[in-house]
Amino acid sequence: MNLLEMTFSQVTGFLKSRYGRGEFHAGALLREVIKKGNHDFEQAPEFERSQALADDLKAMHAPPDFTITDQVEQDNTLKFVTRLQDGALIESVVIPMKRYNTLCVSTQVGCRMGCRFCETAKAGFKRNLLVHEITGQLYSARIMLGKEISNVVFMGMGEPFDNFDNLIQAIRVFNDQKGFDVALRHMTVSTCGLVPGIERLAKLDLPQLSLAISVHSADDRVRSDLMPINRRYPLAELRKALMDYPLHKRRFLLVEYVLIKGVNDSKEAALQLADYLAPLKVRVNLIAYNPGREDISASGFARVADDDLNTFSDYLTELGLFVVKRWSKGQELMAGCGQLSGADEIR
Ligand code: SF4
Asked: Which domain holds residue 34?
């Protein structure tokens, strides 16, 4: 029994089928373990007269089996590395926003999507994360690191839709009011454009969940060069899936656009992007490419100057797009977008 993988109704169902008990004890279990990080739940008042049940559950209970091996904080942005039971390392980032903290979680060890500007891609793909390894990142941030987190973005290591079933279960566990209690509208899934994943998500009834799509270029030639996924699901196919996506009437799609000097930062690129996005209800997150500690990455991509980011943003705004500029927080920690490498040590 791993409570990091179960919703309230699943815990209740389990207790009912096995012990003829139900919501009363399920609520207590989730409150103690998920909300308080207390694994001695047999001491909770709900178990006072049910010690045999508590002992049985305790014997089955699997407490978190991962360790935070490293953490570094700068400008309030905190990156932490978790060692999983099999020794694999994953990274998560706590990002301060105006009124709350957002946690960026990983969904895979490594990634097989091969985006050329991405640190995670360089290490290749190792394996999917299990549900409790995804939800455990929020458990660690809140319980072990004492951070108040109200938002979750699936933007860490890995392509979330490449681990679809575990992603969806993690979302349901996060969303459970008796457990982690993160509102769906406070969660964002970010994809590099895995069209079957977008189509599958569209069929689930999760209209408040935000969907972010990494576009990075509206030119198939440039995008295929940056992101191999574009060869399989080119821009036209991606846009069709996005047009069919059942967007809640007060929501919009989030388009991620990492601006790379000399690659996708021209006026023509802005025009192409505006044209591509015209039929969609979107907000564009414009992110300065982050080559880590160097000005040019090993892949030969260079950081854009702040002025160039402003100019590109102005183009898009003039073309009628709503743009939010992001100077990737945590740059010095290599904890910005596409910068999670699973490195053992944080340099
Ligand atoms: S940017 Fe995202 S999808 Fe692309 S290789 Fe990196 S982790 Fe994978």
From this structure: 3-60
The alpha carbon of 16 and the centre of ligand 1 are apart by a number of angstroms equal to 42
Residue 343: inside a domain, yes or no? Answer: no
Mean pLDDT of 78-98: 94
Is residue 337 part of the annotated active site? The answer reads yes
| DSSP per-residue string spanning 173-201 | HHH-TTTT---GGGEEEEES--HHHHHHH
The pLDDT, as a whole number, for residue 128 is 98
Residue 274 has pLDDT above 50, yes or no: yes
Does residue 121's CB lie within 6 angstroms of at least one atom of ligand 1? yes
**pLDDT value at residue 7:** 98
Q: Is the CB of 118 within 6 Å of ligand 1? A: yes
Domain boundary among 32, 60, 88: 60
Q: For atom 7 of ligand 1, which residue has the closest CA? A: 158
Residue 89 sits in the same domain as residue 185 = yes
Residue 229, pLDDT > 90, answer yes
Nearest in space to 215 (alpha carbons), one of 155, 255, 260: 255
Domain check: are 23 and 155 in the same one? no
Distance 52 CA to ligand 1 centre (A): 48
Q: Is residue 341 part of a domain?
A: no
Contact between 217 and 226 (Cβ < 8 Å): yes
